Amino acid sequence: MTNEWCGWREATERALYGPDDGFYTRPGGPGPAGHFRTSVHVSPLYAGAVATLLCRVDSALGRPDELALVDVGAGRGELLTGVLAALPDEVAARLRPCAVERAARPPGLDPRIEWRGELPAPGSVTGLLFANEWLDNVPVDVVETDADGVARRVLVRADGTERLGEPVDGADAEWLRRWWAPSGAGDVTAADPAPDADATGGAPQDVDTTRGPAPDADALRAPAPAPGLRAEIGRPRDEAWAEAVRTLRAGLAVTADYAHERGDRPLFGTLTGFRDGREVPPVPDGSCDITAHVALDACAGPSARRLTQRAALRALGVDGRRPPLALAVTDPSGYVRALSGAGAAAELTDPAGLGGFGWLLEPVGEACAGLLRAVDAG
Fold first, then answer.
1. In 217-251, which positions are buried (b, 16+ CB within 10 angstroms) versus exposed (e)?
2. What is the pTM of this model?
3. What contacts 336, CB < 8 A, 6 or more positions away?
4. What pLDDT is attached to residue 323?
5. 149 three-state secondary structure
């Protein structure tokens, strides 16, 4: 790692994905599960829900001879492994599972899983593309208002020291104008993709860890000019998600992440770090994960819908209700299993935790457009 001044996007890219010493890519590293728990790590119920969604996509597409499941940001392949175990044999026999991950293929992974370092070619995939907590690790630049309320790019060194750079301009300034607004700055305009009744709004960080116009260089300010306000420029994530959706010839693209909405963005940003199951300062030296909440509303295409994870998982059969006590008498071991499953389901759907995450569902082609309603109906 160098200790030169650069923007957070460049620093994060090196820190997370450097070929020899990146947090995610260094040889022999433990992968995400060694530092935080995502929904995938909480319970097999999550993979089971993705398997259920995949079967719905398969049915909507007319059960094609080859069905793809592309896992973007696959970690060590845990989600694909769980989905393969949960699928009916007939569907699994036609499935082409593909992991997209910049780290090397882990040893012992199911040989059916294709491992690649970049997305498939545009229009080459028929099936489901699923990205669990991927976009939060797409590096972004950070801006902060100076004493005059002007948004300037934040520069950082590998030791985490920061200073303010030049005012934000160009495409990044345009993104801030459109998508970032201080808390209480106004309602989302009618042109935005409308969230569902139980849609994402200010979803919290993975507390489990066991993981109108908006301002630009002249306008990123509180109702009265104030220094120290921060924002993350999500434009690279919008572009990354659009590229991922374009890989589909037909099917459904889904991303799940902790998110916030325009009009309710945090005033001081969300950039943070994780190491060994704990939140730490985001130091871009390769020693920790560096992450920030995702503006999923900015990523959404015109046909996309947004749900909370709670709404999505409950529609896919993940229910946190306790089993009837009578089962403890008639089938004690079954009651214990059901109780354990209910506890895991409750954790996955807790609106104050993982259940508050945002899901963005984007169909490609008419076959899966109605699938969104099918998901809502459960």
1. bebbbbeeeeeebbbbbbbbbbebbeebbbbbebb
2. 0.84
3. none
4. 55
5. coil
